[in-house]
Amino acid sequence: MFGETTELATFESVWERAEEIGSPHLPKEQGRILFEAGQNSNGIAVEIGSWLGRSTALIGCGVRNSGGRLYSIDHWNKIAGGIIESDLDIWERWNSMVEDWGLERFVVPLRGLSHEIAGGWDSKRKPIEFLFIDGFHGYLETSPLRFPELWKKAYGMTSWKIGRRKIPMEDYAPIFPRGVKLDYDAWANKVCVGGILIMHDINRPEHPGCTKVWKEEVIDSKYWTVLIDSDGFGMARRNY
Ligand SMILES: C[S@@+](CC[C@H](N)C(=O)[O-])C[C@H]1O[C@@H](n2cnc3c(N)ncnc32)[C@H](O)[C@@H]1O
Description:
Blueprint: H1 11-18, H2 28-41, E1 44-48, H3 54-66, E2 69-74, E3 78-79, E4 82-86, H4 90-100, E5 107-111, H5 114-119, E6 128-133, H6 149-155, E7 157-162, E8 165-168, H7 180-187, E9 191-200, H8 208-218, E10 224-230, E11 233-238
Parallel strand pairs: 1-2, 1-6, 2-5, 6-9
Antiparallel strand pairs: 3-4, 4-7, 7-8, 9-11, 10-11
């Protein structure tokens, strides 16, 4: 549909296709804001948390319109030296989406833990004009990673692959730090002055960690001017 076209994509044409990409929760009105933020960013955009790529497609088409570039960060189930084997291969699905949409030249995957990737990011060469945070939704955790039974069933998660070994899901739980606080601390200060921060799933009772970071770090901060503070979506512009 889009391929290597030089025509600018409209939000409506992008959404018609993007809503077919499975997503935990990204409704049309939020999709529009992501697309427009990508389109207005005119340079480098970064998203933390891509899953199958609904937000990637929306921001990616926005940055393609403006000639910018999106860096998509996700571990895509490759965590702490292991890979989760699953019927739903989210890494494969995300890559096929990018290829089908003709976004390869505009979207770059960075596979790994967001705070580790932040360590190698060169802010001078790559000042971020738009940052979208939608990764792990707890505030800050270091406990062993275990998935709810519902997820294991829904996505057909069967085992961990570590080197050549296969280990049943229930017998392995990697320990590593993760959380919205970690993502915010590692990435928000890389947003340039005048740049945009969007945080997903704030102000929702089921995600207190996202709301806590939004309230502690953004609301009433001299560094940010809040533009949207709604149910599920926070947007702010960096002042200095
Ligand atoms: C809520 S989903 C993202 C949804 C996506 N933005 C969309 O439009 O559908 C969260 C994603 O964050 C990823 N993730 C969670 N913790 C992470 C971390 N510490 N580093 C990198 N990715 C992480 C998960 O693999 C998952 O794909």
